[in-house]
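Practice record 12: protein with citrulline.
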Amino acid sequence: MTEKEIDEFAIVRGIPNTFQDCVTLSLSHNTPKINVELARQQHATYCNTLEQLGLKLISIEADDALPDCCFTEDTAIVFGDLAIINYPGTSSRVAETVEMEKTLARLKRIYHLSPPATLDGGDVLKIDKKIFIGNSSRTNEEGIKQVAVIINPKGFEVIGVKIWNTLHLKSVCTYLGNGCIILAEGYLDDNIFSQYDKIIVPREEEYCANCLVVNGKVLIPKGFPKTKTLIEAKGFSVIELETSEAKKADGALTCSSIIF
Ligand code: CIR
């Protein structure tokens, strides 16, 4: 299996003052509110870690009119020298793509998705030339089809994956490299990944199925010791990061950057 070359850039965006107004399924009346200052500290540590792993940060200023703007992953997807500007599946997030497009237009050839397509980058799992796309409450079949039309001619194969009871495909599975997928069971037909080696996360640690791989290191959320051991047992080197505030906003490690 061919692996990706070295990653060079990460596009990130600051935490807005309005972060508590984000779209979320997690926050209920008995969940503690998002602490915006703490979220900023955790985001800063995330950014520093990406830099230490060799990435150049491209940072977009936060916009208080866009409470979810720090979750850059959802707004665009990059394939080699092209970038697709997404059509996020939640109306309050569509305007996040404006600054993302300006940023990516300096580096990539830009393509757009057009209505009725909707697609969040959190549904896009890249494994070399295979691109798995979650058909979720945010990403529809038309979105998947339009991505395929753009990238099939570049040699990518798009595979739609029906998912249920979760926000995004990558909320429940990510690719670690060396043919290994980490997966929470019960959210998709995992026969789709039969050709891969799998780490199944224990039920009580499902949030840890979203890991971020940067230049050979596996970044995982702090507080998931069983999964950490399983990942290390496969020979990966792990860095733990605190994500308590992003988690309250239904965010995880991949959500806060676009890496290429
Ligand atoms: C949302 O619901 O859209 C945000 N509050 C969280 C987005 C997380 N993004 C991701 O998983 N890629």
